[in-house]
Amino acid sequence: MSAVLTNGVLTATIDPLGAELHSLKDAAGRELMTDADPAFWTGHAPILFPIIGALQDDTYRVDGAAFHMAKHGFARRRTFAKVAQDDVSVRYALNDDAETRAVYPFGFVLHVDYRLDGATLHIAVSVTNRGDSDLPASIGFHPAFAWPLPYGRDRAAHRMVFSDTEAGTVAAIAANGTIAAERRPSPLDGKVLTLTDALFADDALVFDPVHSDRVTYGAPDGPQLRVDFPGMPKLGVWTKSGSAFVCVEPWDGIADPEGFAGDIFDKPGIHRVAPGATHRAAMSVTLVD
């Protein structure tokens, strides 16, 4: 059964499948997230673990052995156990088992925490290494917000304003989902990204690195969403042409470089988590009137 959190300002609904946020509504019951139209994409806000993006040939190597894993990892397809809940917070956990060890031979517990505080939803993910060898991991967020937001402004009026100046190029995604060697010109005008379907004709915009620690999304004369992601070094922005969503995706890892054939611990963005240690990542979404 889904968990429902509410504080009179926001209401969040979280599905135990993937510990995934499915709905975020304002005090009037207006939906701030994707409509999940299956003609485009049925995701809502998957948690990405233990990889982000695609592996070269869907394969990674560790200690000379090869393992296959689909894009964005397996956490989004696993049912989490609810371990604690009150009116405004919930914690989910996923432990390693025979199925995970077949594709990821490591002992772990993955926690996903949601907490409402006024007009903000906080999301935190942590992985603890329960094994006796180092664990390779990346954590990413993939929330899809309504485009347009439900406040009467045109889709074309929506934009994202970054908190800092970004580089003049963004990473390019190759046809197989890996990161191409050649980068793309950044579409930012100063700190502003004006949203159009054409921006995503060649897949997501990948800011690697991202210097901002937040973006504000929406029409400039209406209520907006502020997405904070302190400490997250990369950011994806993505949609599918004609859909009613746009994703703001803070990541602490990234897809393989095109042609990568090294050990997973040499993969860009992989964190080496020592036995008994915990690796954490967090983001928040705030409704700004």
**Strand line-up of the largest beta sheet:** 7-8-9-10-24-20-19-14-17
Class inferred from helices and paired strands: mainly beta
- What is the helical fraction, as a range of percent? under 10%
Element order, helices and strands?
EEEEEEEEHEEEEEEEEEEEEEEEE
| Radius of gyration, CA atoms, in whole angstroms | 18 Å
Biggest sheet statistics: 9 strands, antiparallel
How many β-strand stretches?
24
What coarse outline follows from CA principal-axis ratios?
globular
Number of DSSP helical runs? 1
Low-confidence stretches: none
Assess the beta-strand content as a share of residues.
Answer: 35-45%
Average pLDDT for all residues: 98
Distance between the termini: 32 Å
Notes on the protein architecture:
The chain has a nine-stranded antiparallel beta sheet with strand order 7-8-9-10-24-20-19-14-17, with no helix packed on it. By secondary structure, the chain is mainly β. Helices cover 2% and strands 40% of the residues. The longest helix has 6 residues. It is globular, with a radius of gyration of 18 Å. The chain is built from one helix and 24 strands. The model has no long low-confidence stretch (mean pLDDT 98).
